[in-house]
Structure formats: structure tokens, C-alpha cells
Amino acid sequence: MKAGKLSDALKKGAIWGFILLELIFFSVAGQFLSLSDSAFMDLDNMLLLLKQSAPIGIIAIGMTIVMINGNIDLSVGATFAIAAIVLLDSMTWPIFAGLGDWVIPVSWLLALTVGTLLGALNGLIVWKTGVDAFIVTLGAMLGYRGMVFMFNGENPTSHLNWTLVDFAEAQLLGIHTPTWFLLGVTLAIWFVMTRTVHGRNAYAIGDNREAAVNAGIRVGPHMMINFAIIGFLAALSAVVFYSESGSVNPNDGQLYELWVITAVVLGGTKITGGAGSVIGTFGGVIAIQLLRKGLGHIGADTSTVNLVIGLILIAVLILDRQLNIRGKEELKL
Amino acid sequence: MKLRFALAATTAMAVMTGTASADTMKIGITQNNVGVDSYQTTYEKAFIAAAEANDAVEAVVLDAGGDVARQIAQMEDLIQQEVDAIIIWPTNGEAVIPAVRKAHQADIPVIVTNSNIAEPGFDFVASFSGPDNITQGSRSAEIMCDKFKEMGIEDEAQIVQISGQPGYTTAIERAKGFEDRLPEVCPNVTLMETQPGDWNREKSQQVMEAFLVKYDDIDGVYAGDDNMGVGALNAAKAAGRDGIIFVGATNFAVGYEAMAAGDYWGSIYQSPVDDAEAALQTALDVLNGKEVPFLNYFDTPKITQDNMDEFSKPVF
Fold it and tell me: Can you tell me where the transmembrane regions are (chain A) (predicted)?
């Protein structure tokens, strides 16, 4: 029992220990290697870090629930791109021409609705067909991406609205707009997962789906809601990001699903479901962005960043396995 | 010059600690997608070499990996690091405009390299350094016209055009340069039809196959780049149609080889080394307060079977 507690504490603390390690390393290495005169731990630089974490981070928070549920969503990158196109394109629709800048909230709402619906569609298929979420969302990933290319071919979809850019670039209390969204989403989903019946059910279903069914939890609708949430968050991420950059390439958001899953796993969520935390995922997101930023700060290649993150991911999984003997016994195929 | 790579970190540390002096210029570059093709890879190597050769330059070399979000983050990081100038090879000519504006507001001059950003961003850019696609197009027209004159068919020749991807500035400008210049030098040459080949060799081959069925007499083909030109050449070869003059733009290795084999007449030589060196030079000129034209083109000469031995084979 004691050993279990210790390994639990180690696992939960691991990501924060890792972040601390990164901060120390880049601060020291930055002294020698960086061209910048300002320190890596500079407040502005850290605020920028949070802001740059937002696109992946907002989606990763949603992925945490889906993965705790024992599912996965590979279509988030494509949903992200579709929401971005809806956002930017709808601002130029003639029916909204009379709205002036009031078109902004309308376009936001449209993009978020589309994202939610696409997510719910995934959930509905998983619920009604019983096909594994991996396969369903793999199909959705290809299908949704196909829709992106059908919309405008290989060309980018663009609309630059300076009012929107100014809003997205604003710093309320020194904190960037995207950061506020990231923090808000993290807080909201943390609340759902730890303080509500829906959250408790999510863990129960991921831990043992059959037992959850027997306990009277309506597993299908529950999972559909979670897919709708992640669809909404993928769209929110797009809406926040593209407010600041008024143009979307048809391949934008590609590989986001993998970065998001990496962040969630780094944060200690079990791939088989039943365990994990939103706060851990937040740590995972920060750890990845810190690594990207830090390696850039000391002048490393982009490819080095990917290599290092890959190695760390595998190391984390091995560590997790060693620490979690109970997990081994529970391994279900 | 001090340049940093993780792998060189240990050796670099000894060399550079404390040697940063006040009068060196810190120049950051964020590239589009190094490694996706050899043009961009060669560009990066040439840029690093040029920066290393100049004692007054410290370069931060970054690559966005084709990801707009990462490029914007890199712009923000470079602004945060207070570099003296930023060179950007845009991943998306419009998406980076707000980031470029941020640099402009922080009084950091931005130099756009290779492909320009969209017009709403021009106010925030110090200079664009890159190839002049209009000139490239008109030079291709001259190459073709000169060859027709040499063959004595300048009054009857009929040609077709295979253009680049619709919507791409490069494609539009090259076609415009060609179409405007051709009637000036060879007024009696007829451009029968233009179809997009989407920068793709297979697509261009199909387009050319259709042209060959449709037109019994084709004397020349102008393609928006050599990749497409060689696709068209393959179609003509397969159909057994000889004597067609192929002219491209942006000489690729495949085009160079086809020229060496005598199948392909000419193209435009665009060197990634010149591209990179021009970008760095433009940044230095801006920082040194020299007058730099807003559109600062580097030269892209004509290359034909006649003068190809003056050029080394392109790496891409």
C-alpha cells in the first residue's frame, strides 16, 4: 500500500519534476549558448510560452477526457482546420455583410458549432456501431481532411480582420488572450472531471466498461458527449489561433492529434483509460512547448526537438510501467 | 559569427562564451520547411555558410517545418530575444502578417525571402529579397523566341503553355511575364492554349498528352517549371513527336539532365545559394541604413543547351 502511494506520488509529480529540470537546463545552457541577452526564465518569455501552448493545449485538455474514457480521437487536427475555414470564410459571406465587426461573434459561434457537431458525429458512430474509436476517428481524420481540400483545393483560405487580430493579441492583466482561453478550459474541464457525476462516470467507464454498464451508466451517450466536447475544444483552439492569423493552409493542424496525444500521455493519462488528470495534461503541454522553445533558445535544430520529445515519451511510458505494477495486471487486450 | 546547433553545443560553448560583442548584428531567420525539398535544404546551408563567413553577423537559424503556428511562435521568440533583424520565408503569405506587424511594432526590420507575403503586410516589411517571377517568365519567352528565329519558324510557330498551380503568385507571375513578353519579341508566334500542371510532373504529362491529341502541330512548350516541362517532354517522347522546343522556368536537375541529353532546350537558372546570400545581404544593407528597394530581386539568368556548361547541375 505504501509503495503504491509512493509510486502514485512519483507519477503525479514526474511531469512537474521534468518541467523543473527543463527550466534549470535551459536557463543554464542559455547563459552560454543563447544569442539573447535576456534570461530564458524572463517573465515575458514565460508568458509567451503559455500563449504558444494554447493551440495544442486546449485540444489536449479535451483529449484527456476522451482518453480517460478509454477512447481516442485522431480527427482533432482535421476538425481544427475545418473550424478555421468556417471562421475565416464565414466572415466574408454576403449575408453577414451588414453586421460590420459584429460578424466576429457570429463567425466564432458558427465555427464552434461545426466543431461540436463533427465531434458529436464521431461519438454517435462509436456509440451506435460499437466500432473502436481509433478506427472511427481515423476514418474521420481522413474524411474531414478531405472536406478541407474539397473546400478550396490546395489554396489557403484567408480573411484578415484587424479588429480580431487586435483582440487576439491583447494582453489582459499581462496575460495573452489565448492563455486566458487555455486557463479557462483547463479549469472548466478540471471541475467537470473532479466535481461532477459526469467526470466520475468517465473514470468508471474507462476503468471497466462492462462494470459501468452494469452500474447503470449510459455509456453510449456519455461517450458521445465527450466526443462533442473535444470537437468543441478543437474548434475553440482553431478560433483562438486563427483570430490572430487570418489565413489557413489546407494542411494546417496535421499531426496535431499526435502532439496532443503526446502531451496527454506525458501528463500521466493511461492510454487504456480509467486514469489521468487534466492538470497532468496541462503539465504535459507546458513540457512540450518548453522543450520546443528551449531548444530554439539554445539554437538547436527543429528536428532535434522531435527526436528529444520522442525519446522522452518512450522514457515516460517505461517509467510509468515500472511504477505501476497494478497496471500490468490490469492490462486488457 | 556564432551559430548554434545542439549537436555542436559542447564545442561551440568553449568557442563562444563571452565573445559576443556589441557591434555584431543579430539576425534571426525562420524558414518555411527545410528538408521538404533540396532547394530549401541548400538554401539553409548557404545561409549558414554566408553568415559564418561574416564576422559582424550572429545568426539564429530556425525552421518552421511548414507549420504556421510554429513559425508565428518563432517570430515571437525572435522578437523576445531582441534580434536586430528578422528574415522570414513565409509558410503562408497571409497568416504571418500579424506576426510581421508585431516585429515591425517592436522596431525590428523584417526581410521577406523567396516568396513574398500578401499585400496587406507590405507596410510592415523592410524589403523583399527573392526571384523576380515576371522577369523569369519574360526571359523564358525570349529563350523560346530566339530558338524559333534560329530555326527560322518565328512567323509560324504554334505553342502551348503548362502553368503552375492556380492561385499561386509564382504561377500567375511567370505566366504573365511570358504572355506579355512573347508578342513583343515574336509577334507571330501563336499561344494556342494554357492549362495548369499544378507543379506536378504526372499531371503535366497528362495535360501534354491531351494537347498532343488536340493539336497536330506543336512547335514549342513553355512550362512554369522544369518538373512540369519534363513531364510534357515525356508525353511527347511517348507519342513519338520530335522537334518540339521545350522551355521551362526554374532549372531542376531533371531539366538539366534532359538539356544535356539534347531533349530539352532551355530554362531559367535560380540558385538557392544566390537566394540565401541575397536575403542576408538585404538584411545587412537594411541594418546599415543603405537604401534598399522594396522589391530587391536577385538575378536569375537564362540557361540553354548552348551555355549550360557555365552552370553547375542544380541540386534539386
Answer: 12-33, 53-69, 76-96, 102-121, 133-152, 172-193, 224-243, 258-291, 298-319
pLDDT of residue B170: 81
A176, A301, A309: best mutation site toward chain B, by most B Cβ within 10 Å?
A301
Are the C-beta atoms of residues B153 and B188 closer than 8 Å to each other? no
- Which one of A37, A245, A296 has the shortest CB-CB distance to B96? A245
In a domain, A261, yes or no: yes
- Of the candidates A295, A300, A304, A311, the one whose C-alpha atom is nearest the C-alpha of residue A262 is A311
Of A153, A169, A295, the CB nearest to B6: A295
Determine the residue of chain A that is closest to B1 in CA distance: A35
In a domain, B313, yes or no: no
Least Cα separation, residue B244 to chain A (angstroms): 31
Residue A23's pLDDT is what?
87
Question: Tell me, what's the pLDDT at A231?
Answer: 95
- Kindly state whether residues B291 and B231 are assigned to the same domain: no
Mean pLDDT of B21-48: 82
CATH code of B123's domain: 3.40.50.2300
In whole angstroms, what is the distance from residue A199 CA to residue A204 CA? 9
Secondary structure (DSSP) of B128-171: EEE--HHHHHHHHHHHHHHHHHHHT-TTT-EEEEEE--TT-HHH
- Whether chain B has a CB inside 8 Å of the CB on A153: the answer is yes
B54 is a domain residue = yes
Of B6, B64, B69, the CB nearest to A55: B69
What pLDDT sits at residue B17?
A: 38
Whether A25 contacts chain B with CB within 8 A: no
Contact: B98, A42; criterion CB under 8 Å: no
Return the sign of the alpha-carbon dihedral for residues B108, B110, B111, B114. positive
Q: Has residue B310 been placed in a domain?
A: no
Total domains in chain A come to: 1
Residue of A nearest to B9 (CA): A33
Neighbours of B158 (CB within 10 A): 16
Rounded CA-CA distance A122/A133 in Å is 8
pLDDT of residue A27: 83
Model-level pTM? 0.77
CATH number at residue A80: 1.10.3470
What pLDDT shows up at residue B10?
39
Q: How confident is the model at residue B11 (pLDDT cuts 50, 70, 90)?
A: very low
Provide the domain limits for residue B88: 9-131+271-299
Q: Do A156 and B60 touch (CB under 8 A)?
A: no
- Would you call A246 an interface residue with chain B, using a CB distance cutoff of 8 Å? yes
Each residue's pLDDT tens digit, A72-88: 999 999 999 999 999 99
Instruction: Indicate which of A35, A160, A239, A307 best probes the interface with B, i.e. most B CBs within 10 Å of its own CB.
Output: A35
* Cβ separation A52–B73 shorter than 8 A: yes
Q: Give the pLDDT score at B126.
A: 92
CB < 8 Å to B33, chain A? none
Q: What is the pLDDT of residue B183?
A: 93
Cell numbers linked to A100: 460590420
Instruction: Note whether A328 contacts B: Cβ–Cβ < 8 A.
Output: no
Query: Cell 509510486 appears where?
Result: A7
